[in-house]
């Protein structure tokens, strides 16, 4: 009798799980469908794009990609290749510099005793309270005063001091035992040796987390670029794609090809580093 | 604690010891002064000035703030933000709770589901604005599909629903992110608590409302704080898809700040608007902290 009910429960539990998995799968399809649609549309014949059908009825074409990469150049628009290179250069530079500057600062705050350390420690927490909108106008004015409008510097330098990055590195280095560092010192190792032999190799996971999020934010940036850039040659992908949407409203295939170019690299990166990424979210999310 | 100097160590030695620490943090301090501290102070000064970024600025006292609150756009923008919040916050929280709970219960393919729902989160705001501008257009996939049932929803062209449509997009984008936070919260609850509830004869519904939900409080607080900040700070979607329209229906505070400073060239009023924007998100966060956040112990 008792066994019977437990088998019954087991069965109803299984059915429940099957229903849950079915619902989740359905939702995933809804969530992923727009991407599939965009990817297919970017190869579709222009007359074939509107309507609900996903599968192409006419032969696929590379014309949209040709337009954004080649034709655009000939008619005086920013070519996508240039914009792609701009975006990549900016995002990689900021990511590298944020990791370097934040790890040094975090290490210093966690493992060095210096005058003013406690003040700086509190200051970094204080900094995180201020939303970025407060800095849009005055950073623009600083950049203008430094004659950096339409330069790469203006798209890179203002983002290097990242309080969130310093805070993560600081938290991490606090957990590294002092003995480990002392032992290198006793062996006659200098500060640089400690940093590059011990501290940095240990902090790979934190480097990936800070790096991933920084890269993603820079790659996606839009507001700062429309404030800053007047010269087409310096425009990153986001600005160029948005410009296409505004001026070539009817060229849907071209827009979708642009979306693919803007989205693809970040998705590949995300899938490669998915673990550090989810770690980063739960880590910063639950500290709240 | 270690800041307290040991009596034996002279000040000179302390300064000498400080050098390495300072050298390591110097790059950070330099960039913070240049692109955070100076701009921050400049911005505060600007709120009391009238300035077109060319001719000399003029001191106007609190006039910028007065002109914001007197502006008819203030109430319109506030109303839009409110409309966004009442669609966005309940939907995103309920939906992500539902999804996180299902992933937790499924105990199968959790990584796959979490990653799939996170894809929109990593997609650039510009990219998904372009995507949904198309999908939700009159001849877009969604409306062509709906017309088979005699329906047609003017998502972005009807002023009464444009802001809600944008809120819906942001829910689609952010759901995976919030789900992950709730999912982590669910996993942090020790299974022994559920076991104990089962032994005490609590049914599943009761366990969920009396135990699971209260224990998820830290996750909810985090999500609500994030959601409040997003609600006040959205820009890319209304700027690209609806340009603040139709009839100012999708104007947001960041949008207004941008327009004022960089199209009307009113740096003073723009800065004041940025402060008003920050103040509104600050107040919302404080309200959430006060009324939602609770100390919990496992």
Short description:
The complex is a heterodimer of chains A (288) and B (298). Chain A is mainly α. Chain A has helices spanning 2-41, 63-74, 80-111, 117-127, 133-145, 152-156, 163-174, 178-186, 191-202, 204-220, 223-228, 237-247, 252-272, 274-287.
Q: How is this structure best described in words?
A:
The complex is a heterodimer of chains A (288) and B (298). Chain A is 75% helix and 0% strand. Chain A has 14 helices and no strands. In chain A, α2 (63-74) packs across α13 (252-272), α3 (80-111) packs across α7 and α3 packs antiparallel against α10 (204-220). Chain A starts with a helix and ends with a helix. Chain B is mainly alpha-helical. Chain B has helices at residues 11-46, 63-70, 72-106, 110-122, 125-135, 141-147, 162-188, 191-199, 204-215, 217-233, 236-242, 253-262, 267-291; strands spanning 49-50, 58-59. In chain B, strands 1-2 form a two-stranded antiparallel sheet. The radius of gyration of chain B is 25 Å and the shape is globular. Chains A and B meet through α1, α3, α4, α5 and α10 of A and α1, α3, α4, α5 and α6 of B.
CATH architecture of the largest domain in chain B: Orthogonal Bundle
Mean pLDDT of chain B: 89
The spatial strand order of the largest sheet of chain B comes to 1-2
Q: What fold name goes in the CATH topology slot of the largest domain in chain A? A: MetI-like fold
Number of domain units of chain A: 2
Oligomer: heterodimer
Written as H for each helix and E for each strand, in order along the chain, the element string of chain B is HEEHHHHHHHHHHHH
Q: What is the CATH first-level class name of the largest domain in chain B?
A: Mainly Alpha
CATH superfamily of the largest domain in chain A: MetI-like
What coarse outline of chain B follows from CA principal-axis ratios?
globular
**Strand content range of chain B:** under 5%
Taken as a percent bin, the fraction of beta residues of chain A is under 5%
- E-strand count of chain B: 2
Specify the CATH architecture of the largest domain in chain A. Answer: Orthogonal Bundle
Give me the count of strands of chain A.
0
Q: What is the H/E string of chain A?
A: HHHHHHHHHHHHHH
Structure classification of chain B: mainly alpha
- How widely separated are the two ends of chain A? 50 Å
Q: Whole-number average pLDDT of chain A?
A: 86
């Amino acid at each position: 009798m008792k066994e019977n009910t437990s088998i019954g429960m087991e069965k109803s539990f299984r059915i429940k799980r099957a229903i849950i998995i079915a619902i989740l799968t359905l939702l995933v399809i809804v969530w992923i469908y727009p991407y599939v649609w965009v990817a297919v549309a970017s190869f579709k014949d222009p007359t074939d794009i509107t309507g609900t059908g996903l599968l192409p009825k006419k032969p696929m074409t590379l014309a949209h990609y040709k337009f954004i990469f080649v034709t655009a150049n000939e008619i005086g628009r920013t070519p996508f290749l240039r914009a792609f290179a701009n975006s990549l250069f900016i995002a990689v530079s900021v990511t590298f510099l944020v990791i370097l500057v934040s790890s040094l600062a975090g290490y210093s705050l966690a493992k060095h005793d210096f005058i003013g350390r406690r003040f700086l420690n509190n200051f970094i927490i204080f900094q995180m309270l201020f939303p970025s909108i407060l800095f849009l106008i005055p950073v623009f004015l600083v950049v203008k005063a430094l004659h950096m409008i339409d330069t790469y510097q203006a798209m890179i330098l203002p983002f290097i001091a990242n309080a969130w990055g310093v805070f993560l590195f600081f938290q991490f280095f606090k957990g590294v035992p002092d003995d480990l560092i002392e032992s290198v010192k006793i062996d006659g190792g200098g500060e640089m040796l400690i940093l590059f032999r011990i501290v940095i190799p240990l902090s790979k996971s934190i480097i990936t987390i800070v790096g991933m999020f920084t890269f993603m934010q820079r790659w996606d940036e839009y507001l700062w670029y429309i404030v800053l850039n007047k010269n087409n040659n310096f425009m990153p992908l986001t600005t160029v794609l948005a410009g296409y949407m505004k001026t070539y409203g009817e060229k849907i295939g071209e827009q979708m090809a642009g979306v693919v170019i803007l989205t693809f690299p970040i998705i590949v990166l995300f899938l490669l580093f998915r673990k550090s990424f989810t770690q980063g979210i739960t880590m910063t999310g639950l500290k709240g | 604690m270690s800041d307290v100097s040991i009596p034996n160590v002279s000040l000179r030695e302390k300064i000498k010891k400080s050098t390495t620490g300072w050298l390591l943090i110097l790059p950070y301090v330099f960039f913070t002064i240049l692109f955070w501290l100076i701009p921050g102070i400049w911005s505060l000064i600007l709120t009391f000035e009238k300035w077109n970024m060319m001719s000399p600025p003029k001191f106007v006292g609190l006039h910028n703030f007065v002109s914001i609150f007197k502006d008819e756009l203030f109430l319109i923008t506030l109303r839009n933000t409110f409309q966004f919040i009442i669609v966005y916050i309940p939907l995103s929280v309920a939906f992500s709770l539902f999804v996180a709970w299902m992933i937790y219960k499924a105990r199968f393919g959790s990584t796959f589901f979490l990653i799939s729902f996170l894809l929109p989160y990593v997609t650039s705001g510009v990219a998904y604005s372009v995507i949904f501008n198309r999908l939700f257009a009159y001849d877009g996939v969604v409306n062509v599909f709906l017309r088979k049932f005699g329906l047609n929803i003017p998502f972005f062209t009807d002023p009464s629903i444009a802001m809600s449509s944008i809120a819906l997009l942001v829910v689609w984008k952010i759901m995976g992110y919030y789900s992950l936070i709730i999912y982590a919260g669910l996993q942090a609850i020790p299974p022994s608590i559920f076991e104990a509830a089962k032994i005490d004869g609590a049914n599943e519904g009761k366990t969920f409302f009396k135990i699971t939900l209260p224990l998820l409080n830290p996750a909810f607080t985090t999500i609500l704080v994030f959601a409040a900040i997003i609600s006040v700070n959205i820009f890319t979607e209304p700027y690209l898809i609806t340009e603040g329209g139709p009839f100012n229906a999708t104007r947001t505070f960041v949008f207004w700040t941008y327009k004022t400073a960089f199209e009307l060239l009113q740096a003073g009023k723009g800065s004041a608007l940025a402060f008003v924007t920050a103040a509104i998100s600050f107040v919302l966060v404080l309200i959430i902290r006060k009324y939602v956040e609770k100390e919990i112990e496992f």
